[in-house]
Amino acid sequence: KTFATRSTDKFNSYMRTAEDLMKRGRFYRAADAYTLASLYKPDDPLPYVGKSHSLLASGEYMSSAYFLAKAINMFGEYVNIRVDLVAMIGDKDKLESRIADIAAWQKKSGSGELQFLLGYVYYQTGRIKEAKEAIDAAAEKISGNFAVTALKKVIDASAETGNN
Questions:
Q1: What whole-number distance in Å separates Cα of residue 114 and Cα of residue 106?
Q2: Helix count (H) and strand count (E) of the chain?
């Protein structure tokens, strides 16, 4: 086998492991597996998206926002992809709890990064009105950020057309 083949095999193995760990609710371990996958393909946005989702599920919101932005900065078209966060995290109540927690931390801190994360989560769960409010606030606080601008464009388009 060539080094490139081994690298791809390792990447795929760690990605599968991370997905399995997510399904089992082992979110910190999943984040570690996504990190290992990213070592084999550092230019692939998927491990960063996965790590963002696993950190969201773990309650590590600022880190989740960071890796989400990193993935969008690498592949701007990611904002057009719809993800079933409920299925990814395991249940709707856990996701709703995470949303409430992010909102509470954002209110305390005034963080634009947490507004960005809320905009993403609201968008992915079809709550376009809340997504627009969150991403508009994020865009004010973090002006000129590519990831925020890209997500804002998609959310604004959804709000204009009434699409969820």
A1: 6
A2: 9, 0
**Which residue has better confidence, 3 or 46?**
46
CA angle 34, 39, 116 (to 5 degrees): 50
Question: Quick check: 153 and 79 in contact, CB under 8 A?
Answer: yes
Task: Give the residue-averaged pLDDT of 77-91.
Answer: 94
Return d(Cα 25, Cα 160) in angstroms, integer.
Answer: 36
Q: At what angle do helices 112-124 and 128-141 cross, to 10 degrees?
A: 160
| pTM, entire model | 0.93
CA distance 25 to 136: 32
| d(C-alpha 116, C-alpha 136), whole Å | 9
The tokens of 84 are what? 């079933």
Tens digit of each residue's pLDDT (9 = 90 or more) over 91-134: 899 999 999 999 999 999 999 999 999 999 999 999 999 999 99
